[in-house]
Design a protein that fits this description.
Distance between the termini: 58 Å
Largest sheet: 4 strands, antiparallel
CATH architecture: Sandwich
Number of helices: 1
CATH class: Mainly Beta
Radius of gyration: 20 Å
Strand order of the largest sheet: 3-4-9-8
Shape: extended
Helix content: 10-25%
Order of helices and strands: HEEEEEEEEE
């Protein structure tokens, strides 16, 4: 329902935008449980062509040595840890929206066998390329 008074509908639209942004943020960094411990799931892009499967995982601020990639029981697993910045330990935190701590993302692979062909972390995104084995 739209209000006739301009100030009312402007506030209504502003509130709708804020609610939409909050929903997007909750969806972007889903928090769940893996192996009985809380962790967050990073968002991914997944694509496939004739002989290759590609995955891009959003991992801003995660060091390469904190990332583990494995193929387990027909799934590709990306797990690791985003460490809490030392600067924050003594700080008064006003807002904390970026998830820290353990993360894990499991992606069920298409039928067939795959081998990890390329792994690269660039600009906060982990790019994985898996080759289909014949």
């Amino acid at each position: 329902m739209r209000y006739r008074e301009p100030r009312s509908w402007m506030w209504e639209e502003a509130l709708e935008l804020l609610q939409s942004a909050e929903r997007l943020q909750r969806r972007f960094f889903h928090v769940g449980m893996q192996h009985g411990a809380p962790c967050w799931e990073p968002p991914i892009d997944l694509y496939e062509n004739a002989d290759e499967l590609g995955l891009i995982v959003a991992l801003p601020g995660v060091a390469p040595e904190e990332i583990e990639v494995a193929i387990e029981s027909g799934s590709l697993v990306v797990r690791g840890d985003r460490r809490f910045p030392l600067d924050y330990e003594q700080a008064k935190i006003h807002r904390l929206e970026i998830p820290y701590g353990r993360f894990e993302r499991r992606v069920t692979l298409s039928a067939g066998r795959f081998r990890l062909h390329e792994q690269r972390l660039e600009n906060g995104c982990l790019t994985l390329r898996l080759r289909r084995l014949k």
